[in-house]
Amino acid sequence: MGNRQKKYMRETRTVKTSYVFPPDTNHLGTLFGGKLMAYIDDTASIAAAKLARCTVVTASTDSVDFIAPIRVGNVVTVEAIVTWTGRTSMEVFVKVSAEDLKTEETSIAAISFLTFVALDENGKPTPVPEVVPETDEERWLNETAKQRAEQRLLRKKQSEEMARYFSNAML
Fold first, then answer.
1. d(Cα 116, Cα 24) in Å, to the nearest integer?
2. In sequence order, what DSSP letters do the residues of 27-75 get, joined into one string?
3. Largest separation between any pair of C-alpha atoms in the chain
4. N or C end of the chain, less CB within 10 A?
5. Which residues pair with 81 in a beta bridge?
6. Which pLDDT belongs to residue 82?
């Protein structure tokens, strides 16, 4: 690992901006959560691929916190950046903003963390470069990633236990 390639976090920054149209919304006129989650996963996967420069797959959606509604006519901006890397995995932070173009009012609508794994041409996990933070915000995300990684491992163990428990159960 001593001569592991390094890349700046900013090199993974990925931004997607879209209008919110009526077919994208629920009966309250706000963006469907599932639609937003698809935007989040798509944008995060591109950020992960920018770092790995190979096929990446979503290992987990660690959290999606919906903070404010995104309404019909708003513009939704999804920004993703790789915040931490393991040997073959990457944590990606995603910030979602909603903007009313008429009033210029902008708000953070959601925050999310996802984990991706890089795969080689045979579909096997492959090493990824280490990310290097530069700004205070990037350093904070990078330094707090270890805590989130520990929480992910605990959740994964709990999910595996539930899967064994419910493998033969009917709900």
1. 26
2. TTSBB-HHHHHHHHHHHHHHHHHHHHSSEEEEEEEEEEEE-S--BTT-E
3. 54
4. C
5. 93
6. 98
Specify the pLDDT at position 168: 80
Q: What is the pLDDT of residue 2?
A: 63
CA 106 to chain centre: 21
Residues 62-97 pLDDT 10s: 999 999 999 999 999 999 999 999 999 999 999 999
166 vs 161: CA distance, rounded Å? 9
C-alpha closest to that of 82 among 153, 13, 1: 13
pLDDT for residue 136:
98
List the 14-19 sheet strands across, edge first. 14-19, 75-85, 89-99, 106-119, 55-66
pLDDT < 70 regions, the chain = 1-2, 171
CATH among 3.10.180.10, 3.40.1190.20, 3.10.129.10, 3.30.470.10 for 6-169:
3.10.129.10
pTM: 0.92
* Neighbour count for residue 5 (Cβ, 10 Å): 10
